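Why do we care about 3D structure at all? Because function follows from shape, and shape follows, mostly, from sequence. That is the central idea of this module. The next example makes it concrete: a single protein chain, its amino acid sequence, and then its structure expressed as tokens.
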Amino acid sequence: MGHDVITVNASAARGHRSISDALASAVDGSVILVGPGRYQESLVLTKAVTITAEDGPGTVELLAANGPAVLLNAGSAALTGLTVSSADTDSPAVLVAAGQLSFTECKITAAAWSAVYATGKGTVLMRGCEVRNPAGAGVVITSSGGNLMDSCRLRELGTSGVVIAEHGELVMRACEVREAGGNGICLNGHGRITVTDSTVTGTAKPAVAVEQHASAVATRLAVSDVEGIGFYLASSGDVLLEDSSVTGAGAEGVFAAESCAPVLRRFQVRRTREHGYLFTGQAAGTAEDCEARDVVGVGIGVADRGTTEITRASVSSCTGAGVRLATSADPFFRRLHVAGCDGAAIEAGDGALGTFENVELERCGRNGIVVLTGARTSITGASVRGTAGAGVLVREATLSLTDCEIAESGGDGVLVDTAGEITAVRCRVRDGKGSGFLFGVGSSGTLEESEFTANNADGIGVQSELSIRIAGCLVRDNLGSGLRQTRGSTALQVLDLRSTGNATRDAYGTVSASGTATATAAPPPPQQQDRGAANDPISELNALVGLEGVKREVNSLVNLNLMAKRRVEAGLSAPPMARHLVFAGAPGTGKTTVARLYGTVLADLGVLRSGHLVEVARADLVAQVIGGTAIKTTEVFNTALGGVLFIDEAYTLAAGQGGGTGPDFGREAIDTLLKLMEDHREDVVVIAAGYSREMAEFLRSNPGMESRFSRTVEFENYSADELVTIVRTHCKRHDYRLDESAAEVLEDYFEHIPKDGTFGNGRTARKVFEVMADRQASRLAMSPEVTAVDMTVLLAADFDASMV
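And the structure:
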């Protein structure tokens, strides 16, 4: 093999018995072949040699008790297939202070602050290596130029996997960092890294941290299942992340601060907490084609004067807002898509600015756009649809909307509340459960060239006395007025309003150029006044205390019936509908009231002839003689034709003994009802009501039941605050006023009262009012002097829980 090959074998007579002996006899260019075995020694490499495990990786162990196991102090050297370990708690296993040390298929284990350390003028080339260090870091680089890690695995690390500090530089390809007690990759000082096709998993601190003046270029770097932040970016240096991802992080997927200006391209964040992305502390930079999904918190947050530009971002399935702007943030979003978030799609507050262009927001659990507390936000080209609450909400803030569509909102399409100001140009608001656009008390703004169509209340409602300008707008086919002004004011200016097909006539004042009132619309005729705000069943329904879920369900049903009617009028087939309902919930939650309002709405739409309510119970349907139940049920059913048949405690019909034989004919009543419902399906609505669990059993009691009653509306118990509000409503209706101390006592009472089967919800609230009124009368009857004010105030002393 020539004089350049030196052999080492600890157990044989031939060659050298230690690697150090072989090094002593080697010259530059020598190859040292090491036979299998354990060699307890430290190597100081002063010559350009190659040390190779003769029988392949894992057959040669090099162990050092003190100091580094390998120290390079030459121009270059190479190790192949060695297992290198150091037990010294103060020294790395491999130290390269000068020259270039190449590792191929080596395993390195240490017990100190680092396993591999390249510093000064030393560099490392690591290919196919494995590094473990339960006491500290895996690889620490402070030297510049020429450091490479290719296809390496770093795991079971006490601190960070890879640390690049001072002016250190590293190229990292196809590597894996797992189970690090610190960061997976940590850069500070002026460190630089280029990393591709690598993974970081299971770190206790941010998987990738780039701080101070460090720079990073990462392509296809995947972070997963880490306890903290995925990427922590707080550097003044260049940061480029492409085709990379974070999946399963205990905090933010990407956190950028300290004026960092990262560039993110095609980045994915999934299953993180707090935020998918958070740009704060004057962070800037750009993000393109990025995604945030399944975040327990906010999808994208921009705060503390962050100015990041974000293009083609997709946010979905977050428990908080899709996008949240705060504390003077001023980002720019272009082509944003937000879907299925529990919070608002876009939320801006705390003086945030922000510009949005071409955004699509859908199916969010609250509002589409919320602008609050000093925010001044601009949105152009937005589509907002399917929100649970208002499509757009503005309060104590300013919003500009241009070329936007807000559709199918669970509340008002656009609600401008106290101290809110809005400018809406060329916007369309349609098919909302409330008003298309509502100016609340203390709000102001301008509507230009916009359309408000097919909303369940007014097209435009104005409750404010401040300056409002409406110009060149269309309001049509709304279930309330086209434009309704509820407070007398000369500050409303209406120019070129086209109003057509609305359920009630418009009622508003117009303003001349001088600012004085010039005209007031005539009141609607008597037959339309009955459908105005005071007696409009939809408005009355939406004004009920609590019952938010019920309101959404009923408004949805109303819209479905409205569209069915319009389709028939247009010569189209009606969509399949099952009008019969189950109202499930505890007593006193407004089931009868909602049923009555629902019937009135269907009558107003022409779906039912009269919409009257017939309320019955088991005794009204079931007879005690053979053959009598069918006759009795039919007679009752016929009285409800054209309206609503409301069956209270309907589950009792299925509770008879013997399945309808003997003295109990409840099952016969059910069979009769099912046939009558089929025969008169276009001329009656049947609503079966009762406790939730019992109604579920009721539906299962007959094979045809679930097909007739295809929709169940759940009535939840009222909250303590809602019950106090109901008491206040009774007070107002009877010219009483509830003292605040009494309200606190009642709230505490309602909070702790058992919500079992005996709890009456609204009935309990009414009983509380009656008890307080009785006790107040007894209290005042004993007073020598009683004023009018005394007779209207109910005090805490007027409440006695034992009497309820």
